[in-house]
Amino acid sequence: MDIAPIDQMDVSDDDLLDQIERAAFAFFWQNADLATGQIRDRCLAAGDDSRTVSSVASTGFGLTTLCIGDSRAYGNHDEIVARVRTTLDFLCNRMPHEHGFFYHFVDMSTGAREFQSEVSVIDTSIVLCGVLTCRAYFADPAIQTLATQIYERVNWPWMLNGGDTFAEDWTPESGFNPERWDQYSELMMMYLLALGSPTHPIPPSSWQAWRRPNLTYRGLTYIAGDPGLFTHQYSHAWFDFQNASDSFANYFQNSIAATIAHRDFCLSLAGRFPQYNTDLWGITASDSPHEYVAWGGPPEHGPIDGTIVPCATAGSLPFLFRDCIRVLQNIRRNYPRAWQRYGFVDAFNPITGWYDTDVVGIDVGTSVLMAENHRTGLVWRTFMKNPEAVKAMRLAGFHPD
After folding, report:
1. Which terminus in the chain has less CB density within 10 A, N or C?
2. Residue 4 has pLDDT above 70, yes or no
3. Cα-based distances in Å from 87 to 61, 96, 294, 380
4. pTM here?
5. Is the Cβ–Cβ distance between 385 and 136 less than 8 Å?
6. Could you give the dihedral angle defined by the CA atoms of residues 353, 358, 116 and 168, in that order, rounded to the nearest 10 degrees?
7. CATH 1.50.10.140 is the classification of domain 14-400
8. 100-159 pLDDT per residue, tens
């Protein structure tokens, strides 16, 4: 499938979002194994990468992006349907799994475990969100049957390991990780998918069991755990929390507050990093000149060095559109090295002149899903057609605001 190059720089806001989405579709289309559909965890921003490691989370974001690409005619419909079938067939029938949960990193051609990685409940949840989005979007019996089998196979109570909250992960060498998913983070999708399972559900009490600590920053009080901004974005990419609250919060409004606080936190660092301003801010877990870093704030976390991470603002487009698109427009116009074949590089430092040579699947994915949700709400509208998602939110105690 040919994908047209993107080279316009001075564009409207909607045109920029379309560029981001087209570039993301190109990443997920061109970096999938043709025989398995599994998608590279990362690749060179300029393209033509030979690495063979896939992450199931990248595949999950990619499946959802195929729905977006089909709706916007970025590719041929029949080829997209065939790619989704290939991906789901491999996940269902050939990908190694443990009680339905997948390893975090696998070989994209064989599905074999890579890096001695863990059986991951969060990464499995991300790929399940992609699987269920495809089930709801494509009127294709094979896709719908395979998607249902993949989802209904997951034994969610097994990952509770006798507790009220999920174990962080499992490995064949060490068994269950003693750490647990027991504090607010990107975890909401995991618990909702498990609550809605028609075959292996967990009790609704597990939704109440994880902690929701409050953080107050410059007059804003909101629920926060890990300082990474992505924790306020990932579950919102699929589940629509806009007009509903549980007994604790409206989580959409909570993410708005978290994004405002993060913007103000970045601006507070301008004395150390003069390039930080209302046109240039945003830090979340990303590549750095040395390694992948879980940095962010507030409170300040990690060795912050003036790096900018474009997916931080792209992933918050539905929450604070005007402020976020202002940053993305500035980067697109004034930092040409930050935009390559698949859109924005994962991170760059305007102070030192460092530009990442890679893009990362989960960061590309967050950007495209949230861009589309801002534009049309397609991912929310499609994913929430799944009756299990509606059931899960009801069992968790959500009610219309």
Report:
1. C
2. no
3. 12, 14, 30, 22
4. 0.96
5. yes
6. 80
7. yes
8. 999 999 999 999 999 999 999 999 999 999 999 999 999 999 999 999 999 999 999 999
Contact 120, 41 (CB under 8 A): no
Strand partners, 84: none
Chain length of the chain: 401
Q: What is the dihedral of CA 90, 94, 99, 105, to 10 degrees?
A: -70
Region label for 53, one of left (φ > 0), alpha (ψ between -120 and 50) or beta (otherwise): beta
**Helix 56-71, helix 361-375: angle, nearest 10:** 30
Omega before 274 cis (within 30°)? no
Cβ-based neighbours of 189, under 8 Å, separated by 6 or more: 125, 126, 129, 234, 235, 238, 239
Per the DSSP assignment, residues forming a β-bridge with 296 are 301
Instruction: State the pairing for strand pair 180-181/244-245.
Output: unpaired
Could you identify the residue written with the tokens 């196979």?
153
Dihedral over Cα of 181, 160, 211, 239: its sign: positive
Contacts of 219 (CB under 8 A, 6+ apart): none
User: How many CB atoms are closer than 10 A to CB 285?
Assistant: 24
Return the structure tokens found at 190. Answer: 């995991």
Q: How does strand 348-349 pair with strand 175-176?
A: unpaired
Q: What is the mean pLDDT of the chain?
A: 96
- The pLDDT score that the predictor gives to residue 8 is 52
Q: Are strands 53-55 and 105-107 parallel, antiparallel or unpaired?
A: antiparallel
Q: Which residues contact 138 (CB under 8 A, 6 or more apart)?
A: 67, 70, 81, 84, 144
What is the distance of C-alpha 352 from the center of its chain?
Answer: 28
Q: At 344, which amino acid appears?
A: F
Closest CA to 58 of 363, 291, 370: 363
Can you give the pLDDT at residue 6? 46
Which DSSP symbol is given to 201?
P
User: Would you kindly state where each structural domain of the chain is located, as residue ranges?
Assistant: 14-400
Contact 75, 34 (CB under 8 A): no
Q: Please answer whether residues 282 and 229 qualify as being in contact, where contact means their C-beta atoms are separated by less than 8 angstroms.
A: yes
Query: Is the pLDDT score of 9 beyond 70?
Result: no
pLDDT computed for residue 10 by the predictor: 78
Task: Give the model's confidence band at 2: pLDDT under 50 very low, under 70 low, under 90 confident, else very high.
Answer: very low
8 A C-beta contact, residue 107 and residue 95: no
First to last CA, the chain: 44
Give DSSP secondary structure letters for 158-192.
HHHTTSSSEESEEETTTEE-S-EE-BSSTTHHHHH
